[in-house]
Amino acid sequence: MPSPYRALFAAPGSKGFSAAGFLGRIPVSMMGIGVITMISQLTGRYGLAGALSATVALSAAVAGPQVSRLVDQYGQRRALRPATLISLTAAALLLCAAHYGWPDWVLFVACVGIGCVPSVGAMIRARWAALYRGTPQLHTAYSFESVVDEVCFIFGPILSIGLSTAWFPEAGPLLAACFLAVGVFWLTSQRATEPQPHPRERKGGGGSALRAPGLQVLVATFVATGAIFGAVDVVTVAFADEEGHKAAASIVLAVYAAGSCMAGMVFGLLHFAGAPERRWLLGVCAMAVSMIPLLLVGNLPFLAVALFVAGLSIAPTMITTMSLIEEHVPRAQLTEGMTWVSTGLTAGVALGSSTAGWVIDAAGARAGYGVPAVAGAVAVAVGFLGFRRLKRPAPGRGGSVEQHSERKERHVA
Q1: Burial of 334 (C-beta count, 10 Å sphere; 0-12/13-18/19+)
Q2: For the chain, which end, N or C, has fewer CB atoms within 10 Å of the first or last residue's CB respectively?
Q3: In whole angstroms, what is the distance from residue 399 CA to residue 404 CA?
Q4: Cβ(382)–Cβ(217) under 8 Å?
Q5: Residue 7: its pLDDT value, please?
């Protein structure tokens, strides 16, 4: 590991919460694709599979910010454990309902409960922010976390799809639930690095972080970005199935994540002098353009190459987004602010996966790749329309020392 990354772990407790965060985040990449694989294996209905995956995502979009708001108020331990128990109970219900062929409405109810899963990535980033706020090391920490996210998305689908196709259909979601339980309860047992809670005061301190105009732009854009991710997952599974190699979908999606992982690792070693919002918009545009070649895919090897190139723009855009959140959200609402961006992604994943599922059922997998292409265009449009809001950080809100100095130089010039 390059020395800037190794230096992050000089802080006491950082290795422990990072390891717990890794385990707690793997279910994010396993559950949605696991539900799709499980239901398509048991019923052959991609529309139902996409709708159930979308239900999990939409439920998480609604519950996630509320859980994180409670975390900011009462601390990670007090808020995360009850939320995780609800999610685990719902996962058990889903597995039983799928296995025994219970009515579809039971599947949907279970997926709503699964959505109470906490945003573990936001919890870990909040711990890094508490350690390194205002220093260049925070950029490196955010880059490392984006790499961890992509490592999860490399191995998560492989485990979920591979186990569900080679062992039994419910194996992927079952293992995801086990990872969630171990990760969250291990993380919340580490009290020394837990950020201090910020109880809401009655005098104007209880508003949602989403009231920040800059955060609204980031969330809206990432709804469209999430639609890209959700659609790509569903369509890739269906495309591989049409090609007669359904299990290969996990490898192709892992290549997609590998491109992002590689880009994130390099990005974390660089230091930029320009405005972060410009890098962010460039990243959104790059993600959109990279969807165009998918419309021309003819076989799995070509698809893997196209997705690897597409993945190169993901992690840098995510890292820059986290830096922008530091500028537009109050410190006492940082976890909630990060979760709102994750919520935007999650809602987009729901929209993209469900839309792609219906397109696949109606016109086949190749037509399904039109969904991420359209979503990319929407992301670019929203990013450009809201760009001016990102150039005006809220007074007194958190940003890194480097970002504040960059802005000061721009205003002087």
Answers
A1: buried
A2: C
A3: 7
A4: yes
A5: 84
d(CA 255, CA 55): 26
Cβ–Cβ under 8 Å, residues 150 and 261:
yes
Buried b (16+ CB within 10 A) or exposed e, 126-143: bbbbebbbeeebbbbbbb
Alpha carbon distance 339, 342 (integer Å): 5
Orientation of helix 120-132 relative to helix 14-43, angle to 10°: 160
Whole-number pLDDT of residue 404: 44
Positive or negative, the CA dihedral 169, 351, 155, 13 is: negative
Cβ neighbour number for residue 204 with a 10 Å cutoff: 7
Distance of alpha carbon 369 from alpha carbon 373, whole angstroms:
7
Q: What is the pTM of this model?
A: 0.74
Contact predicate 111/52, CB 8 Å: yes
Q: What is the DSSP letter of 312?
A: T
**Number of Cβ within a 10 Å radius of residue 357:** 30
Length of the chain: 413
Task: Work out the angle at residue 151's Cα, subtended by the Cα atoms of residues 218 and 77, and round it to the nearest 5 degrees.
Answer: 70
Residue of 318, 333, 278 whose CA lies nearest to 129: 333
Average pLDDT over residues 192-211: 68
147-178 as b/e: b if 16+ CB within 10 A: bbbbbbbbbbbbbbbbbbbeeebbbbbbbbbe
Q: Which residues contact 366 (CB under 8 A, 6 or more apart)?
A: 239, 297
User: What's CA 22's distance to the chain center, in Å?
Assistant: 13
Cα-Cα-Cα-Cα dihedral sign, residues 350, 352, 353, 354: positive
What the chain holds in terms of domains, given with CATH numbers, is 14-191+210-412 (1.20.1250.20)
Share the mean pLDDT of the chain: 83
* DSSP of 15-70: HHHHHHHHHHHHHHHHHHHHHHHHHHHHH--HHHHHHHHHHHHHHHHHHHHHHHHH
Helices (H), 170-212: 171-188
Average pLDDT over residues 106-124: 89
